[in-house]
Structure formats: C-alpha cells, structure tokens
Design brief:
Chain B: It is found in: Endomembrane system; Membrane. The complex is a heterodimer of chains A (about 475) and B (about 625). Chain A has about 475 residues and is mainly alpha-helical. Chain A has 19 helices and two strands. Chain A has a domain of about 210 residues. Chain B is built from 27 helices and two strands. Chains A and B meet through helix 11, helix 14, helix 15, helix 16 and helix 17 of A and strand 1, helix 5, helix 6, helix 25 and helix 26 of B.
Chain lengths: ~475, ~625
C-alpha cells in the first residue's frame, strides 16, 4: 500500500507544485525537491523496516481493477526493483537540482511532468500485472515526450516525435504479445489472466513462446536501446533539457534492461536461451557501433548518447550469457552507467548554460578557467571508459569474465570496446578542456559541485567497495 | 599495515593538493608533495629490511574484500590486498627512492609553473598507482594500478594542455597503451577461465605443478595464448615493438615526468609483469623465445633511431626503449634476476640523464635541439660532469652500475635455451649502437663550440643539485647493491650451463670501447663543430636519416592502415546509416502526403481530367 501512496503523492506533489508556481514564483522547485526527498525517505524507511525477504518477489498489493478482463492492480518488489527505484530517487533529486536555473518558462508544468515521469518509472518497476505494467509504461512515456517537446533544444519537436513514435510502435508490439499471452492463458486454463506469477507458472510450447518473446524483446530492445533500433536515442538525448537527458540515460534506459530480465528471460527462459546468439550478436554490434559512432560526434551530448548505446550493449550481452557473474556485472553496470552518464549529461548542461553551445568545436581549453569542472569531466569520462576504481569497471569486468566462460568469442570482440571507449573518452575530454582556450567560462558553483561530487563519490564507492551491491543476488 | 601505508602518503597528498590547489603557496605544495614520497621511501626501506628479516621472505596484507569471481569450480575472492616479496621489494625501492629524488628535483624545476600544485598532485597520484601496480596481490588490482599509471602518464604528457601537439601526444600515448591493456585484459579472462583464480600467489603455486604432468594439448594451447596476450600488455606499457610509437612523442611532457614515468618506473611495468608471472612463461618456451627476439629487435631498431634524433630528449627516449629491450631480452632468455637488476640500474642512470638534460634545457631557455647546443662542457661543467656519469653507465663501461647489470644479461644469453648465440650477437651489436649514439649525443651537445648566443642561466638551487648528485652516486655505485631474488626466481630450467667460447666476456667488455672509438672517428665533424652549424647539419639531410628520425616508419604505417580507415569510417557514417534507413519511413509517408495534397488542388480542370481518365480506365477494365 505504501508504494501506491508514494506514487500518488508524487503526482499530487507535482500538481501542487504546478498550482503553487502560479501564485508564488520559484516555489515549484522547492516543493518538488522537498516532496522527492520526503518520499524517498519514506521509501527507504519502508524498505528497511519491512521484514520480507526481498531476494524473492514479494507481492505487496493485489486488488481487482477491471473485473471483466480479470485485470488487477497488483504490485510486487524484489531486490532488483528496489535497487532501480533507489537509483530513480537519486537521479530525480539530481534532476530537480540541475533544472534549478535552467528552466525559465512554464516552470510549474515542467515540475509536474518531471514528477509524473518519476511516478511512472516507479510504477514500471513494481507492476506485476502486465496490463498495469503497460499502463505505467505509457504514463512514463507521455510526460517525458512533453519534457523534450516543450523544454528541449532547437530541434525539440522532431526529437520528441521520433522518441514517441519509436516507443509507441514498439510498445504496440508488446501489447499484442501481452494480449496474446493472456489469451493463451485463457485457452489453457479457461481463465483470462494478466498476472505475472500466473504467467510464470504456465507451461508453454516453445514455438508459441518464441513469438511472444519477440514482441517483448523488441519493445525492450528499443528502450535499451540496441542497434538497429537505437536511432531515437541520440536525437532525444541531445534535444532534451538536461534533466530530461539525465532521466532518460539514467533510468529510462534501465527500464528496458529491467524488462528484459523480468519479462523476457524469466517468462520465456527456453526461448531466450534459443534466442541468445542473436541477442548477443546485437549486443556486441551495439557495443562497438555505439563506441564508433560516439567517436564521430561533434556534439557533446550526442557523443554521450552514443556511448550509452555502447554501455547498454554490455548489459544485454551479460543478460543473454546466462551466467551469474555476468548477471551481477549487468546490475553493477546499470547502476554505474546510470550515475556516470547522468553526471556527464549534467556537465553538458552546465557547459551549455555557460557557452550556449553543445558543439565540441566551440569548446576547448576550458581547464584554464574552470579547473574544477575539468576535473569532474575527466573523472566521469574515466568512469565511462572503464577506469578501474570506478563503478563501471567492476560491471564491465564481471560481464566480460562471465561472458568469456560461456562464449569466449563474444567477450573478446566486446573487449575491443576498451580501446574504442578510450578513443571517444579522449575526444570528449580533450576536445572540451584541453587545447588552446577558446573562451573563458565560470567554474562550477556550490550547487553544481555538490551534484558532481555526490555522483563521483557513489561511483568511487561502487568501484572500490562493490560488495554493497554484490551481496544481494537480485534474483540472478 | 606498514605495507599499506607506503601508498597511503602519496594518496593523501594527492587528495589534499587537488582539493586546495589554488589556495596553496609554493613552499606548502613542495613540502607536502615531496615529504609524502619521502615518507613512502622510508616506509619502503623499512619494509625491505623487515622482508629480509622475515622467514619466508614474504609480507602480505589484505585491506578489504573487493569482489568475487565465480567459475564452474567455485568462487575466488579478489581482495584489495598487497604482497611484498623480493621482486616487488626492488620495485618499491626504485619507485619511491628514485621517485623521491625526482620529486625533489621537480619541486624546484617546476617552481615557476602556474599549475605547480596540479603537477605535483599528478606526480603523487602516479606514485600511488605505481605502488599499487607492483604490490598488488592479484591481477585485477594490478590492472587497476596498470590503468592508473596510464592515466597519470596521459595527464602529465598533456600537462601543458594548451599546446595542440602535447594534447595529441597524450592522446596517442593513452590509446596505444590501451591497445596493450586490452590484450592484457583478455589474458586475464583466459587465465581466470583456465585456472579459476587471479591471485598471484595462488597462480604461482598452481603453475609449477602443471610443469610436472604436462601432457594436455588444450592446456598448452591456452597457456600459449595467455603468455602471448600478457606479452601484448607488456609491450604496450614498456614501449616495445610493435606498440613503441607513443614513447618518443611522450617527451612532450615536462622533463621530470619523462624521467619518472617514461624512463625509470612506468615503462618498466611490462618487464615487471613478465617477471611477476614468470611461471606462465616458463611453461611456454616459444613465447619466451618471442620475447627475446622482440627485445633484441626493439633494442636494435631503437638504437638506430636514436642515432638520427635532433632532440636531446628524443635520443634519451629511444635509448630507454632500447634499454628496456635489453630487459626483455633477459626475460626471454630466462635471466629473470639480471633483467630485474638492469631495471634497477637503468632507473638510476636514466633518471640522472633525463634530469640533467632537463637542467641543461632549462639553462638554455628551453632549447632541446642538439644542433643548437655545443660546448656545454665548458659552459656548464657541473651538469656536464653528471651527464658524463650517466652516459658511462648507459654505455656500460666497466665499473659503472650499467656494466654490472648489462654484463649479467649478456653473459647468460649464449647458453640459454630460449636465446642463444644469435641473440648474443644482437646484444653486442646493441651495445655498439649504444656507445655510438651516446657519443654522438655527447659530441653534439658538449664538445665543439657553443651554437647558442643567449647566456646560460642554470638553476643552482642546492636541493636540485643534491638530487642530481644522489642519482649520480646511485648510478655509479648501484651495481654493488645486492639483490636477493633467489627465492622469487628459483634456478631457471632454461639456463643450462654449456661450454661457452672463452672470448665471450672479452668481446662483451670491449664492445663499448670499440663503439667509442668508431664514434670518435666517424662523428669528427660533430666533435669539432664550430658555431656555424651549416656544416654540422650537412651530415644530416639524407633520406635514410629522416626515415630513422621519424621512428622507422611505424607511425605512418599505423596511420595509413588503422587511424585513417577508422577516421574515414567514422566520418562517412557520421549520420548513422541505421538512422537514415529508419528515416526512409518518414520520407515515404511524406511522399504520399505530398502526392495526395497535390491531387486536392481545387482546380476544376484537374478534377474533370481525373474523372475522365478514371472512367476510361474503369470501362477498359470492365471491357477487357
């Protein structure tokens, strides 16, 4: 029940912030920050005080919603969803802080959309009725589209439309698969059901499950994203306002990975194993292609966007290796990439605010006037190319060692990304902070330093003491 | 705990300096950064002493559990833990000892730089990472140090980041060594999937056992690849063929950096890696044979390249490459202790050479071109004396530290199973080349008339000179330091004692003198060069000389076959081919949209015509 109240409270806070901004300027951001921190604390208290064993999926609420179709409002959580929700809280708070000065028009409505997205994301991570899941999947999408379309950069309409159409078309496939599965359940047991645990218990012929799995797989592959359906991402990330990019890269992509774990691999274990060679190939292609494309970019944000494709390719590779170590690596990578890419997008936003450009050509030599910013950019770029001691290394190392034991060729080809990522990391860092100084910029302010150092500390912690995460099994 | 504290001081100093870089004055920064390394050096000294007193010549400490690696046979813990034995003892002494002297020098040499605090912070971070590299008790932690020193090297090469060429040199160094690192990472994956652990101590207890019952072809094959891939990592870091191209460019960094990172410590990491995992290599004699040849070829090619350089630092860079080639040759021949010994003496005299070169460059107002030097023997006698000491060691003249270590290597080559007479001759030829380029450097820089007009402005700070003198003493007497490595490297099987010709030693000792004599005659114009340098430059315009000067064409080959194609591919596909395919949908929908709009144009004639044509078509269809 608590979780439903939290989601409701998020939407309400958003609405109040929207209303309050009309009467008292500048109140929306304070209200959102307050609401988010408060609700995050409530969530933390709820999790720590609950005496469930979250290694297994714990059903918290089950009530009938649409009785005609036997659709329930049912939510459940386990360690995986708790981790991803925690990441969501953290990045949501950072989103508010990073938007502090950036958003200047329709401020109230902006925070309403932001909080609505967060509520949708949390819903996605806890829904165990597939229809409810689909509902939250859409709730998450619409305000995000609005954020890109209203507060984005010069080409925002196009990017928002592209994002919307890609996600819609792919989630339509998922909807077909969901209905197909429910209908199959009806045929087998005489009862229509959208309930996840019912589905898991249902035996299914392989041919059937292959088709249904494909529907889910495509939807999540678009979200992850994987080559060749990744092309919405560079545009969406580049055009979105900073907070939008942070949320997209930090959490929205992880809903794809989450979906792959929970709905593709657990619902269709055999079909997934059969499909693994295809998925692993796509993953390896994504890893290398993303890294190569990142190198070619001259837009700071676009470069990070393509690097995300490369990193999420590692996650997909790990998931379809069916190896416990690779799985743990995937979890660590999800968190570490959430933190590091969010940090890089924050820095992109900070630079944009100063020079009103995202082009690496307009940048160069910033180190002289902004050494603190340079230090942080370097650190996060290092995280992105997997410097040991930061979280991303642990993830990628575990993935590669794990995958190597199963399919050595894939791991070797994927390891080439170590070089390719260093190449784009160099372009990113050296292009902006080294070379002759193009212009003077103001160094980071206190709020910005706080954001960056929080993210860096977490990455360091994850890199030096990953036991914090690895002591949980995450259902692997 | 003392073991962990060695690296704690540099880390603390680094953290302090980066946090307050802008607010600190020169004395504070200098004191803190140099003192931290001094403390480290003291701790290392104490540790080495403790080590020799301990029973099994082994000290270990585990700080915390990092993560687990699981395999089919069970799980193996990877700890943040350190391991000190004779080999790492030598390494930490060199890293902290030479590191301390170089820090002392740098604190004065870089005093005027605006970013002095940042410089010293990077130097401290480097020492920290290097200590992790040599003390790590497992290969993952070693890899952490390995990448860490790479990062510091990158930061320090690009320290003067406003110069485009420095930025590019830093990028090149990082990416080229990263290629080697990737090979090493794959070696670790293979090593783990074969043996189920990456713990160095465990590996070295597992591996020798295999030697006894060695019949498994699959295992042999795996070991061969592991050794080869590890070698790939080593050649990247140690600037050996074929990944050597980054080192000459790395001279763009400040001179203390070249001395510390690109001569004394980091570039020997590859040598350390191979010596550390010598058990793997002992099982794969073919790979040892490759290592020997790789070292020999590198030492010859680098020697030839050094003969054609104009820049004093680039001569020294190629000479470093060539001396590391000797170490590799030693490792390949199974002369592990000799390799480690040469690593140590080389650190002494190469640091001395680089730092003295730095003093000279500074005194000549940042002039690095040898053809614009000359006559320094009279103008800067102190620096010249030190430089001569360094060169004597480099040429391995009898009595110097270089002599002891290089002779130790050469003496074991002839009868080694994995080396042999051919490689012995390579080593002798290399020694000849070494004296040739050393003399050329000396003649050009120190003899003849001065070819510069500005007055000399030497830094005479007492501490700077003290650091140089200390290094000079180490270079001269370093050969007498006894290394107790017999527990680390039990008698190599490949070193069988055969009947060797009696003239071997005589030839080896005489070779440097022959080189000096040849240089004395051949480089006469350099020796006697007047202030008019046209005559000197006249010797230097051949195609061959230019080819050698540019590093024997490796750069252009890599540029044509790797860099350019990648750039081309990236540029051609900048707009993402997949995106363009996806956007065809948009184009297709847009096309129909336009077509239909065009039809609905409100013009009666069009409608009538369309009507008429439609009727005609319909009747046609019906009739047919």
């Amino acid at each position: 029940m608590t979780l439903s109240v939290i989601m409701l409270a998020l939407v309400l806070t958003g609405a109040i912030a929207w209303w309050a901004e009309r009467h008292w300027q500048g109140s929306a951001k304070w209200l959102s920050l307050l609401g988010l921190t408060l609700l995050a604390t409530v969530f933390a208290v709820f999790i720590t005080s609950a005496n469930h064993d979250f290694a297994q999926l714990q059903v918290l609420t089950r009530v009938m919603w649409i009785a005609t179709f036997n659709i329930e409002y049912s939510i459940a959580i386990d360690q995986l969803s708790i981790l991803l929700i925690a990441l969501t809280w953290l990045l949501a708070i950072i989103c508010v802080l990073i938007s502090w000065r950036e958003i200047k028009h329709k401020v109230g409505f902006y925070y309403f959309n932001l909080l609505l997205t967060v509520a949708g994301i949390i819903g996605v991570f806890i829904a165990v009725d597939l229809f409810l899941f689909f509902f939250f999947w859409e709730v998450m999408l619409l305000p995000m589209t609005a954020i890109i379309a209203i507060w984005g950069h010069e080409n925002r309409r196009f990017a928002a439309l592209k994002f919307f159409i890609f996600t819609q078309v792919s989630s339509l496939l998922m909807l077909v698969a969901i209905i197909g599965f429910a209908y199959f359940h009806l045929l087998q047991t005489g009862l229509l059901s959208f309930y996840y645990l019912d589905w898991r218990a249902l035996p299914m012929p392989l041919a059937m499950s292959q088709y249904l799995m494909l529907g889910f797989f495509i939807a999540f592959a678009v979200k992850l994203p994987s080559v060749p359906v990744h092309t919405w991402l560079p545009d969406a990330h580049t055009q979105a306002p900073t907070a939008g990019s942070v949320l997209l890269a930090g959490v929205l992509l992880k809903t794809g990975a989450y979906g792959l774990i929970r709905f593709v691999i657990f619902l269709f274990p055999e079909a997934s194993v059969q499909f693994a060679p295809v998925a692993a190939t796509l993953a390896v292609v994504s890893i290398l292609y993303g890294a190569k494309m990142a190198f070619a970019q001259q837009d700071f944000k676009r470069l990070i966007a393509y690097s995300s494709i490369s990193h999420m390719g590692f996650v997909m590779l790990a998931l379809f290796a069916f190896n416990s170590m690779a799985y743990q690596g995937a979890i660590v990578t999800m968190v570490a990439h959430g933190l590091s890419s969010a940090a890089l997008f924050c820095l992109a936003g900070m630079i944009y605010q100063r020079i009103h450009s995202r082009s690496l050509i307009a940048m160069g030599g910033f180190w002289r006037s902004a050494p603190r910013m340079g230090g942080f950019t370097l650190a996060f770029a290092c995280a992105a190319f997997g410097l040991p001691g930061l979280g991303n290394f642990i993830g990628e190392f575990l993935i590669l060692v794990g995958v190597f034991q199963v399919q050595a060729e894939f791991a070797i080809v994927a390891a080439l990304a170590l070089v390719a990522s260093a190449v784009y990391g160099m372009v990113l860092f050296q292009g902006s902070f080294q070379g002759p100084a193009k212009c003077e910029v103001i160094d980071l302010q206190r709020r910005e330093v706080a954001i960056c150092s929080a993210l860096l500390l977490l990455l360091l912690l994850l890199g030096c003491y990953p036991t914090l995460l690895l002591k949980f099994s995450f259902g692997g | 705990m003392l073991l962990a504290s060695v690296m704690l001081y540099p880390l603390l100093s680094f953290l302090f300096l980066v946090s307050f870089a802008k607010k600190l004055s020169w004395p504070t920064v200098a004191t803190i950064s140099v003192a931290s390394i001094g403390l480290s050096a003291l701790a290392s000294g104490l540790l080495v002493w403790q080590l020799s007193a301990s029973d099994n010549q082994l000290l270990t400490v585990t700080l915390w559990h990092w993560f687990d690696l699981n395999s089919h046979s069970g799980s193996s813990a990877v700890n943040i833990g350190f391991y000190l034995d004779g080999l790492s003892g030598v390494m930490i002494s060199v890293v902290t000892g030479v590191g301390f002297l170089i820090h002392l020098f740098a604190a004065i040499y870089m005093k005027a730089d605006k970013n002095f605090a940042r410089f010293m912070a990077y130097m401290n971070l480097f020492i920290f990472a290097m200590l992790i590299l040599v003390l790590a008790d497992n290969l993952v932690l070693l890899y952490l140090g390995w990448e860490g020193v790479g990062l510091c090297s990158f930061l320090l090469i690009g320290f003067w980041y406003q110069e485009k060429s420095n930025v590019l040199a830093a990028r090149k160094a990082f990416i080229v060594t990263r290629v080697g690192d990737t090979s090493m990472a794959i070696a670790l994956f293979l090593l783990f999937s074969t043996f189920g652990t990456l713990d160095i101590e465990l590996l070295s207890s597992v591996l020798p056992v295999i030697n006894g019952a060695d019949t498994d072809a699959v295992l042999d094959d795996k070991l061969y690849w592991i050794a080869l891939l590890l070698l790939g990592g080593a050649v990247g870091k140690s600037a050996q063929l074929p990944l050597q191209t980054w080192l000459p460019d790395a001279m763009a960094g400040p001179t203390p950096v070249s001395a510390l990172i690109h001569a004394a410590t980091m570039v020997t990491a590859g040598v350390y890696l191979i010596a550390r995992l010598h058990h793997v290599f002992l099982l794969t004699p073919e790979v040892m044979h490759y290592i020997a040849w790789l070292g020999a070829i590198t030492l010859l090619l680098a020697g030839v390249a050094a003969l054609a350089q104009n820049d004093i630092k680039r001569v020294l860079a190629y000479s470093t490459m060539s001396q590391i080639g000797y170490m590799m040759l030693a490792l390949g021949a199974g002369a592990w202790s000799a390799g480690a010994f040469h690593l140590m003496t080389h650190a002494f005299f190469k640091a001395l050479l680089f730092l003295t070169a730095g003093s000279i460059i500074y005194a000549l107002h940042h002039q690095q071109n040898l053809f614009k030097m000359g006559g320094l023997l009279q103008k800067a006698p102190f620096e010249s004396a030190l430089f001569i000491i360094g060169l004597i060691c480099l040429m391995a003249l009898p009595g110097s530290s270089g002599f002891f270590s290089k002779e130790a290597i050469i003496a074991q080559l002839w009868s080694s199973d994995t080396a042999g007479p051919m490689l012995w001759w390579c080593a002798i030829l290399g020694a000849l080349l070494t004296s040739l380029y050393s003399c050329r450097l000396f003649f050009l820089g120190f003899l003849g008339r001065a070819r510069f007009s500005a007055p000399i402005q030497a830094e005479k700070h007492i501490l700077l000179r003290a650091a140089l003198v200390a290094l000079a003493i180490l270079s001269l007497l370093g050969g007498l330091i006894p290394l107790e490595l017999s527990l680390v490297f039990p008698n190599s099987v490949v070193l069988a004692s055969k009947n060797e010709p009696s003239w071997l030693h005589t030839v080896a000792i005489l070779t440097p003198f022959i080189g000096i004599l040849a240089a004395w005659l051949y480089f006469k114009p350099y020796r006697l060069a007047s202030s008019d340098n046209k005559q000197v430059l006249g010797m230097h315009n051949g195609k061959l000389a230019q080819f050698c000067q540019q590093g024997l064409g490796f750069d252009s080959v890599y540029n044509t076959f790797i860099v350019q194609p990648y750039m081309w591919l990236a540029k051609r596909n900048k707009n993402d081919i997949f995106d363009q395919i996806m956007m065809l949908n948009t184009w297709y929908v847009g096309l129909w949209h336009d077509a239909i709009i065009m039809v609905q144009n409100g013009s009666l004639r069009w409608y009538l015509a369309a009507f008429g044509i439609a009727i005609l078509l319909l009747t046609g269809v019906i009739l047919l």
